Amino acid sequence: MSTVVFASMDADTLGGIQRVVHTVAQGLAERGHEVHVVGLHRSGDPITYVTAPHYSHHVISPGPKRSPWARRRTAALLNSLEPGYVVMTSPGVVARMKDLLRLHQGIGQYHGSFAHARGCWHYAAVKAHYGTLDQAVFLSPDDAWQFSEHALLPNTWHIPNPLPDWPPETSPLDRPRVLAVGRLAGVKRFDRLISAFGRTGRSDWELHLVGDGPDAGRLMVHAVTEGVADRVRFRGRIPAGEMAAEYRAASLAALSSDHEGLPLVLAEAASHGLPAVAFDVSGGVRHLVRDGETGLLAPPGDVAALAAALSTLMADTRKRRRLGAAARGHARQFKLPNVVDRWEELFTHLRR
After folding, report:
1. Tens digit of pLDDT for each residue in 12-33?
2. Which of 9, 115, 154, 228 has its CA 20 to 30 A from that of 43?
3. Helix (H, G, I), strand (E, B) or coil at 237
4. Where in this chain does the record put each Glycosyl transferase family domain (predicted)?
5. Inter-helix orientation angle 303-314/190-199, to 10°
6. What homologous superfamily does CATH list for 177-333?
7. To which H or E segment does residue 109 belong?
8. What is the pLDDT of residues 73-118, one digit of tens each?
9. Which fold, 3-162+335-351?
10. What residues does 92 pair with on adjacent strands?
11. What is the DSSP string of 152-182?
12. What are phi and psi of 278, to 5 degrees?
């Protein structure tokens, strides 16, 4: 068994990276690995992802500001552990920790897409630092290939994010409800989804938005402007333990983001037998949604195309069920044991 450290800037805030880290850490710990989850600074609003963790949890610093004291404390923690693997979950973490590894092999993980990285500082950081590590891990085969080709990384690998649970029940897909889940903030572009929903002209369907965030008020006004305020339900934040019922009550999942890595909400929807309609913004989205097989994709930002895809599946129950069954079958690869297998394959590869 191996020593495995997952390091994040903040390991306990509500977020996709944090959820994945705790889920994978528990999965590896349950197989006998010695696992440590490290937050380089404390969360201002911490939540609990695993109620009975089999791994150790560490917080280095009370705040995000770099300091020699925090650096020494991080180094001391790593040096106190048996040699193993340190998974650094973002470019910022890699920049802070890559020269502290000494006893350990370094794995740089990137939770975004290649397309998103190219549009911000992440691309330069990944190109500069990830190639010097023992392995660079991305979320999909397409993203790993893109970074290998364009950032000239010689050490790419791909491991998807895992589903924490596998539901025994699926949706009957007979309720006229579209479900979208995410923070009500700019990048998710729920304004575009509301517009697309309005363009379908289906007054018998509802759009349920699960999540909270700073754009809630603006989106409510937008729903009024689009003439669908009576059919768009703002549900707020729903506890993770209650989300299965939300998926079972829906017949379609929708994703309208400007960018995504590998959006776990689509895998969760698929595990409940829901087909998805999404903007084709990344290799991770294409890895989850096979156009015409498990759902329908629209060109990024194309509201008319998103509306057409929604209309197609709203009008055809038989097609929804065919795509939904295929989506559930496709989602099996994201079950936690399968993803933990991929991590163990990586560790075996690095030991050779």
Report:
1. 987 789 989 999 999 999 999 9
2. 115
3. coil
4. 170-328
5. 60
6. Glycogen Phosphorylase B; (3.40.50.2000)
7. strand 105-109
8. 999 999 999 999 999 999 999 999 999 998 899 999 999 999 889 9
9. Rossmann fold (3.40.50)
10. none
11. --S-EEE-PPPBS---S----S-S-EEEEES
12. -150, 155
* Edge-to-edge strand ranges of the sheet holding 252-255: 232-236, 206-210, 177-181, 252-255, 276-279, 295-298
What are the contacts of 331-336 at 24+ separation with CB within 8 A?
331/163, 331/267, 331/270, 331/271, 331/288, 333/160, 334/160, 334/161, 334/162, 334/163, 334/267, 334/271, 335/162, 335/163, 335/166, 336/23, 336/24, 336/27, 336/162, 336/163, 336/164
Q: Please, which residues bridge with residue 178 across strands?
A: 207, 252
d(CA 139, CA 325): 24
Tokens 């802070």 map to which residue?
A: 96
Burial of 107 (0-12, 13-18, 19+ CB in 10 A): buried
User: Which residue, 278, 282, 304, 281, is CA-closest to 291?
Assistant: 278
Question: Is it true that 3-162+335-351 and 177-333 share their CATH fold?
Answer: yes
